[in-house]
């Protein structure tokens, strides 16, 4: 049965108000009539007034500003503009969401406010210089994991690690991992699965963006006893780490086996340039801070800071200060014991 013209007009008026109005941008009855013409419809002022009263009775918060440039606008919405800005920032900051999916999600968030407010969200959408995954399946992996947890089922998937060629190489010679999923956590802009590995009788964590070919199995989850008193916050604190500070482009010389570590930290968009048969060079934006120097020092001889010279000198000074913090006699005693 065809929808009546009256019902269509009501829907179009609501659509126009939702898309084009907010407290700073209103539409008069004449404006609404003009915009209705774009949908092949029209309405005189009395009809517009009547339709707005009907929409108000249905619970739509339509307000009216008085004065020369007065008009109607949508008052409260499901999400306020500051809330949407917060969500946009979260999407942008998330490494586990690809650029393409980030743009799609932000577009959907923009549809929850007026066109003019959406422009404010767009101003916040700066060029992505944060590491982003290239694995488009992440979004769907998360959904599959939630489904498995809800239905008390195990999952199977391939798991990979990054190579110098920036290819996700499958671990265990391509053998499927079989895990009982119990929790998902977001740390340092990455999504992690916390699950139980029955074969090892251990609680383990897996990067969701490194999973491929995921399947929800018919077998029930195992490891429930291990998670009875499980403290996710304590587990995350022991397992994950992060650092921040003022960014500067730094050149690193790294051993080839550090490709995965570098891609994990800085994303798959970076260029890994061969330096010699055993090393590659990479230019990355880093937080030049004690936290960054501590991260570099933790990787030992496999990662060296090559440039800029000022950062290199800061790092050398940092290492010297570390050594100087140990009394000379203790270092000599340790050397004697080592001999």
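^ structure tokens above, recovered residues below v
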């Amino acid at each position: 049965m065809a929808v009546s013209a009256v019902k269509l007009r009501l829907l179009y008026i609501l659509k126009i108000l939702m898309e084009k109005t907010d407290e700073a941008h209103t539409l008069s009855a004449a404006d609404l009539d003009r915009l209705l013409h774009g949908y092949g419809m029209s309405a005189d002022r009395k009809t517009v007034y009547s339709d707005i009263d009907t929409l108000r009775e249905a619970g739509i918060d339509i307000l009216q500003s008085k004065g020369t440039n007065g008009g109607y606008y949508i008052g409260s919405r499901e999400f306020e503009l500051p809330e949407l800005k917060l969500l946009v920032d979260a999407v942008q900051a998330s490494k586990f969401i690809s650029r393409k999916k980030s743009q799609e999600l932000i577009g959907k968030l923009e549809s929850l406010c007026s066109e003019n407010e959406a422009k404010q969200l767009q101003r916040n959408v700066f060029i992505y210089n944060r590491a982003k995954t290239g694995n488009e399946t992440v979004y769907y992996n998360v959904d599959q994991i939630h489904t498995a947890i809800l239905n008390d089922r195990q999952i199977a998937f391939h798991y990979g690690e990054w190579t110098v060629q920036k290819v996700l190489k499958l671990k265990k010679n391509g053998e499927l991992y079989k895990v009982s999923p119990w929790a998902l956590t977001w740390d340092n802009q990455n999504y992690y699965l916390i699950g139980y590995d029955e074969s090892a009788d251990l609680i383990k964590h897996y990067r969701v963006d490194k999973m491929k070919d995921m399947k929800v199995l018919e077998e029930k989850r195992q490891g429930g006893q291990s998670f009875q008193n499980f403290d996710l916050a304590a587990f995350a604190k022991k397992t994950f780490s992060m650092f921040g500070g003022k960014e500067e482009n730094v050149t690193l010389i790294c051993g080839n086996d550090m490709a995965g570590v570098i891609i994990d930290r800085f994303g798959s968009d970076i260029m890994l340039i061969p330096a010699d048969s055993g090393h590659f060079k990479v230019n990355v934006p880093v937080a030049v801070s004690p936290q960054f120097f501590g991260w570099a020092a933790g990787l030992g001889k496999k990662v060296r800071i090559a440039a800029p010279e000022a950062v290199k000198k800061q790092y050398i000074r940092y290492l010297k200060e570390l050594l100087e913090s140990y009394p000379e006699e203790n270092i000599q005693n340790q050397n004697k014991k080592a001999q």
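Residues 91 and 105 are 8 Å apart (CA to CA).
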